[in-house]
Design brief:
alpha+beta, Trna Endonuclease, Chain: A, domain 1, 4-stranded mixed sheet, two-stranded antiparallel sheet, 3 helices, 6 strands
């Protein structure tokens, strides 16, 4: 039987988005598409932009999602650092971070 650690990034994202909607969060995701050279690309002007952006009432935060073995790119680190420096709460979440994911979605990003 698969464990949480076996989740793909796409499966993790589906679970995070579902829980976020249940708990009243709006969620924005920039979808990947096939670009030049038949390579996957994300249609945004900011290379490394986080997978998900959440907001409700007076709270907002961003999260980059990774599988258990997924790597954060240099561009993603740069963007996450910059957003954090600007005062936005940012997270890198993997399947094993489910307790933190639930806590943040239930209580807000300052609860982490």
């Amino acid at each position: 039987m698969p464990t949480r650690a076996d989740l793909t990034e796409a499966d993790l994202q589906a679970q995070v988005v579902e829980l976020a909607h249940i708990l009243g969060w709006e969620v924005m995701h920039v979808r990947r598409s096939i670009g030049k050279g038949e390579r996957w690309t994300t249609a945004t002007s900011v290379v490394g932009w986080p997978d998900l952006f959440f907001w409700r009432r007076r709270e907002m935060f961003a999260a980059e999602l990774k599988s258990a073995k997924g790597k954060v790119t240099t561009e993603q680190e740069h963007v996450l650092h910059g957003l954090g420096e600007a005062g936005l709460s940012v997270f890198v979440w993997r399947p094993e971070d489910w307790d933190q994911i639930q806590r943040v979605l239930e209580k807000g990003p300052r609860a982490a």
